[in-house]
Amino acid sequence: MSDAAIPPGILIERESANRPNYLNWSHTVKDWLLTSDHKRIAILYLISITFMFGLGGIAAMAIRAELVLPHGHLMESETYNKVFTMHGVVMIFFFLVPSIPATLGNFVLPLMIGARDLAFPRLNLLSWYLYTIGGVISLGAMICGGVDAGWTFYTPYSSIYSNSNISVTLLGLFIAGFSSITTGINFIVTIHKMRAPGLTWMRLPLFVWAHYATSVIIVLGTPVVAVTLGLVLTERLLHIGIFDPAIGGDPILFQHMFWFYSHPAVYIMILPSMGIISEVVACFCRKRVFGYSFVCGSTLAIAGFGFMVWGHHMFITGQSVYTGMIFSALTFIVAVPSAIKVFNWTATIYKGEVVFSAPMIYALGFIGLFTIGGLTGLYCASLTVDVHINMTYFIVAHFHYVMVGGATLGYLAGLHFWWPKMTGRMYPEGWAKLSAGLVFVGFNLTFFPQFILGWLGMPRRYHYYPVEFQTWHVLSTAGATVLAVSYIIPIIYFIWSLKYGEKVGPNPWGAAGLEWTISSPPLPHNFDNLPTVTWEAYNYEVPHADEEVDHSGGIVGDEQPSH
Amino acid sequence: MNNFPLLPDQASTYATQVDAIGLALTSLTAFFTAVVFILVTVFAIRYRRGSNVNRKTAGDHNTWVEIAWSLPLVGIALVMFVWNVKPYAEVFNPPPDAEEIFVIGKRWMWHLQHSVNGIRENNELHVPVGRPFKLTLISQDVIHGFYVPDFRIKRDAMPGQYNTVWFTATKPGKHHLFCSEYCGTDHSQMGGWVYVMTPGDYNNWVRSGGTSAAPPKTPEQAGYELFTQLACGNCHKNQDAIRAPTLYNLYGRQRNLQNGKVVTADDSYIRKAIRTPEEVLLQGYNATMPTYKDSLDEEQVHDLIMYIKSLGNGAATNGKTAATAPKQGNKPTSEGEQQVTPVVTGATQANSAPQVDTALSNPTVKPAKPTTLPGNATSTVGGSTTR
């Protein structure tokens, strides 16, 4: 076949299934650890972040178990503080930030744009090593001795007063930050320079747009937090006054610098997830995403406005009330592009041909939970109301709706969507649908009570709490247990599917997109012949890729809706 | 106590404002969540694969639809924003008649002092209904957060900076006081109760000396004693001298600093001028004043500020040469109160006034007889210093 236009849905090489793919062309440890193949690096990342997610999850369960009783029963206050710090640090810096870009983004993005790899394959490998080194250092510090500053590391507590392993942890985070930066640079250059012929910007899948916007945020924001953490280290180790007023510093300066990164970091976590939802909803509605250009524009708007709202974390700190007002107005405005996305996904479902596959159920869960997470963000944007709910469980509930209900459900949707592409095998769909339903129920049971707790005035990071809040805490812990089960089930069936899962063809979902035109798992170099794109994204109007073929080999038969 | 609470008590005037906006937000959230849930569910089921429905005319782009659902959102967002502006601007700017309470956060307790009657409390605060109270907060170590959920107010107590917030309690009862900003090991135990009382109960409580064991001293009186003890009056006379400016009518006046800035002499400025005077040197003076950063704690600094505040308000002299006499200076004072640790009467503002003159000019000699302040003279002099 030539480099000429390849109609979507036509396989480049049917027989490629018998050729060595990226997984089995070699089996040595060295070939895995020194690989520059974006797909293998994605797998390395997948294993690492799953490990981190497990650790963060164990810490979460310890917190929930402890809070069943108002006066503690498992640990000392100091231990409790270390456990919630570990939960936050691990989940934010070592799970949520790299989760989608470094695994699914790494794997799928070059395939989507018809490239043989990222622009800088070795930089990509370096990124994983930086992540791993940073992770080992931070985890070591958190496990051997512990850190009790909370993931926000507010000064002067973190820089002067805390006696825990702050310095080493910060060093680890500092290093891990560079793994984000290298990934971001890699994605930006790749998207600019390595798109297949004919794949214009407005033909890009929205997943690619999401990663482009995310990468820009990463590259602009992460260096700021690296500098900030460096300054905390400077004050802590050298006693040079930067943030502690006792030695001439300003504690609010830290908060400005920290949130200048850490608020956009929320969008680093949620934007790729939104990209996945666009892919999944389009595929399982058999329809082009409604209002492609608006969804795309809203992605960029979120990335842009996201940098101008950090001050809403500081309404009660003593920053000028006028500053507060500007940040409040901008925060209200940033809600609009998010809403536009939700409306467009809803409109995509309208008159679609909806297939209730596991990824789609996760995606529908995302839309529901993100809607609640986004709308409760308005409470935080409201100056007056924020004075009441800031630093309470309301905030905890709000950002878990966005970070877990949003980012993590999107990640799971994407993992289920591309798992057959990554492994060449299908997981048991029945179990996947069960756990997708379970995660929705468990999640709401865990975090909805926390909205009520927060409105009642329960402050966050409290080891002991007044007795009248106990009922809600018990409900929340019950939900967390369900949630834990719903995370464990996929881990089991994904591993099971590696050996026993049904083999699938190149395009088990009948999806549009270049990644579905090549074999599953892909060849080491992805494309024998680089494709030329002559069609728009999500061209589901034309019959697709082995939609017919897959009745035999793709989706597990009895799970498929009749058609 | 109710084991299944849904809403917190509404115990301050601010709480009503917060709850009104909260209700509006909850309605918006419920409405939009319902719209999305219902539409997604209905569409997903109706258009499931295999269902026999009309799928024609399913467009994938409609600019008017996009505008139609975006613009109202912008409108709603702006309305919600504007609604918030006024109450937020007000909650941190106390009305002038608010009684002041000084709050120090330290790991892991709250220390509070009523400025009018001098009563000190730890982890408890007693206030009457219907009267505005201003809290001036500072922390002695890390950041703390003063949070009374039933009042819906929260304000960080920062190290090195005064923050203010105020409230008028409306409902007698016992309300939680929390520390909302994570501050280390016993963060969750840093709190107590706010007791809101009827005015009658409150007066009884004040008359019995509150919770203090020792007869309370107002911050102003403590500040006067400290002023004397530290011999501040050796340099700070009752009018500008070569070594130092007078402190009469200092409060609220514009100060021209050597670094070129013009600042208002408020609590934060005076705090800085006591602790690190070299940072806020006044034009025309040398850096002769010692640093009190390490020798005075936050409470002592605040006592001094309250004393200096009692020496008259110079805000009226800004930009004028001759100003009206400061309020306190003209107040007639009762005899014989200045040396005695006063009984709490609420008339303490007048107490320190007679002591001032002597304290400034000769800190070692106690005033024999209360006199009224030479208000006009000092304010004129004060006016000229700002030139």
Q: Which features characterize this protein?
A:
heterodimer, A: 563 residues, mainly alpha, Cytochrome C Oxidase, Chain A, 2 strands, 1% strand, disordered N terminus, disordered C terminus, B: 387 residues, alpha+beta, Immunoglobulin-like, Cytochrome Bc1 Complex, Chain D, domain 2, 2 domains, five-stranded mixed beta sheet, 9 helices, 12 strands, 17% strand, elongated
Task: Give the arrangement of secondary structure elements.
The complex is a heterodimer of chains A (563) and B (387).
Chain A: H1 29-33, H2 38-66, H3 77-112, H4 121-143, H5 157-161, H6 166-193, H7 206-238, H8 251-285, H9 292-305, H10 321-349, H11 358-381, H12 383-389, H13 393-423, E1 425-426, H14 429-456, H15 470-500, E2 502-503, H16 550-553
Helix pairs in contact in A: 2-3, 2-4, 2-15, 3-4, 3-6, 3-7, 3-8, 3-13, 4-6, 6-7, 7-8, 7-9, 8-10, 8-11, 8-13, 9-10, 10-11, 11-13, 11-14, 13-14, 14-15
Chain B: H1 13-46, H2 63-91, E1 99-106, E2 109-114, E3 120-122, E4 124-128, E5 132-139, E6 144-148, E7 153-157, E8 163-168, E9 173-179, E10 191-197, H3 199-207, H4 219-229, E11 254-256, E12 262-264, H5 267-275, H6 298-309, H7 327-330, H8 348-361, H9 375-385
Parallel strand pairs in B: 1-5, 4-10
Antiparallel strand pairs in B: 1-2, 2-3, 5-8, 6-7, 6-9, 9-10, 11-12
Helix pairs in contact in B: 1-2, 4-6, 4-8
